[in-house]
Amino acid sequence: MVSFSEDLKKSCLDVWELAHEHHPFIKSMGDGTLSLDRFTYFMKQDYLFLIDYCRVVALATAKSDRISTMGKWSKLLDETLNIEMDLHRGFCTDIGINILDLDETIPSAATINYTNHLVRTAYEGDVNDIAVSLLPCQWGYDEIGRRFYSLDGLNPASFHARWILGYNNPAYQEMTIWLREYVDSLGNISSEISRKKMKDIFHKSTQHELTFWEDAWNAGSTD
Question: Whole-angstrom Cα distance, residue 183 to residue 148?
Answer without folding.
Answer: 26
